[in-house]
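STRUCTURE:
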């Protein structure tokens, strides 16, 4: 990043993101170019919060936000280099997820007025969540990558959307199962807690049948016939962390005691 651009972002952030006298078009060019910058200070501490405030703080029209949303959902951002030819292209994808989180939050404030855009984000997210191959949480060279955690953040906003109903909730729950039985990575960077936040939102909307939720939990007893270490350990650890986190979210809620009971019994069977 050019030093003058870094100083501009630092100035905006230090002003509590006051965009007075800032050319937002020029600023957006800087933010888009650096959304997945390998420098964690630039990416996490400057680009992410400035971009988020620009989207959130009623600086831009909804027409402009819609245009930005279209760009973020494109092959240049959310679907950039899904085959990971570039070791760190994943940063563009995962930090795109965080800006989409803000956009869906904004859309949720206007509810059905933006239903078509919420559904567009939802369908793109499903494709991304199924196809992402890089589950690294933290990397010593570039810092947090967090594809699963950032996916959970976006999912939490989608779970809140009135446009998203029972069928869509069920699809997201089932995809969480698919992600947490992956054998390639141990998810050790708060992915379970952030995913459970999304699941909790979905559950508390009370659109999902208890039978579906019970089946969702019990399905974790069965995963691909992974016998070798460390793959088997990766899978069982990921499942246990997710279910334990879910258990403690609902342990004091009598309405969902049936859920904590089935979680407890399921955990006993996973060795």
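SEQUENCE:
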């Amino acid at each position: 990043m050019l030093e003058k651009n870094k100083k501009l972002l630092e100035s905006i952030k230090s002003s509590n993101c006051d965009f007075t006298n800032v050319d937002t078009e020029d600023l957006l060019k800087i933010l888009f170019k650096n959304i997945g910058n390998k420098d964690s200070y630039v990416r996490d501490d400057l680009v992410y919060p400035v971009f988020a405030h620009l989207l959130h703080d009623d600086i831009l029209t909804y027409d402009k936000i819609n245009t930005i949303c279209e760009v973020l959902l494109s092959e240049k951002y959310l679907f950039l280099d899904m085959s990971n030819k570039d070791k760190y292209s994943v940063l563009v994808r995962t930090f795109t997820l965080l800006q989409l989180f803000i956009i869906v939050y904004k859309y949720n404030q206007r509810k059905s007025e933006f239903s078509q855009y919420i559904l567009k984000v939802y369908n793109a997210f499903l494709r991304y969540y199924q196809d992402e191959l890089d589950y690294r949480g933290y990397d010593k060279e570039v810092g947090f990558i967090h594809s699963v955690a950032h996916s959970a953040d976006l999912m939490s906003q989608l779970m809140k959307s009135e446009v998203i109903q029972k069928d869509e909730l069920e699809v997201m729950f089932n995809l969480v199962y698919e992600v947490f039985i992956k054998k390639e990575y141990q998810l050790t960077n708060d992915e379970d807690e952030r995913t459970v936040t999304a699941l909790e939102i979905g559950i508390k909307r009370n659109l999902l049948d208890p039978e579906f939720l019970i089946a969702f939990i019990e399905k974790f007893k069965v995963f691909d016939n992974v016998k070798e270490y460390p793959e088997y350990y990766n899978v069982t650890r990921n499942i246990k962390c997710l279910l334990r986190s879910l258990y403690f979210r609902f342990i004091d809620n009598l309405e969902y005691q049936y859920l904590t009971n089935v979680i407890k019994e399921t955990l006993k069977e996973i060795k």
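REMARK: The longest strand covers residues 138-139.
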